[in-house]
Amino acid sequence: MANDFFEHVLNPTWKNLPSESKEVVFRNVLRYFVNPMSTIENLRSVKFEFGGITNETFEVTIDGREFVFVPGQNEVILGWDSGLSGLSGLDCSEERQELRYAFKRYLNQHLTGFMFLNQDVQEKDLSSEKLTTQIVEDGINLMTSELRKVDIPAMLVEKKPNFVGLRFIGNYSVVTGQLTGAEEPSPETLEILEEAVTPDNSMEAL
Length: 206
What we know:
The protein is α+β, with helices and mostly antiparallel strands. It folds into three domains: 5-77 and 150-158, no CATH class; 87-144, no CATH class; 165-206, no CATH class. The protein contains seven helices and nine strands, in the order H-E-H-H-E-E-E-E-H-H-H-E-E-E-E-H. The chain has helices at residues 5-8, 13-16, 19-33, 94-117, 119-122, 133-143, 187-197; strands at 10-11, 40-50, 53-62, 65-70, 72-78, 148-152, 155-158, 171-172, 179-180. The strands form three sheets. Strands 2-3-4-7 form a four-stranded antiparallel sheet, with helices on one face. It is flat, with a radius of gyration of 25 Å. The N and C termini lie far apart (65 Å). Residues 121-126 have low confidence and may be disordered.
């Protein structure tokens, strides 16, 4: 492995590599960091875009599960401590909409909890109460993590969740009652699945 390998898997070096060099680097990632007994197939180049930033990387199937390579970056700024500063009400981008929805949920939960804990507030008409800019500023800063710099290493990220402590045995169809997967299901397994997904319509359940 070349001495500059770990530099190549980090942005901005990764971003500036030609596509052919990126593939060489990624194949080395698979060679040195993936179990040699694993089945590796369907390696393909992909592009992702978010917030106006485009990143070229690779996806690969390892033992039947899809992974995507995420290049790392040092001194990434995370968190927020600027309140409303920089948050335009006219900004309709997806990330801004997500922030608005999250803040709306926060305000609803905060108000509900505050009223529950304060009897005087419960008996008070809040229809005339004003939501001040300072309340919004403080709320945004409370619901976001602290501002910080972190070094994020390169990662192979599985595209679908893989639950720890569970073993995948297949996909169960509630319509046909069939279980399809890498191994033949036992009658006991099918019985457990059927009981788990079949509603109990007996009088005792009612």
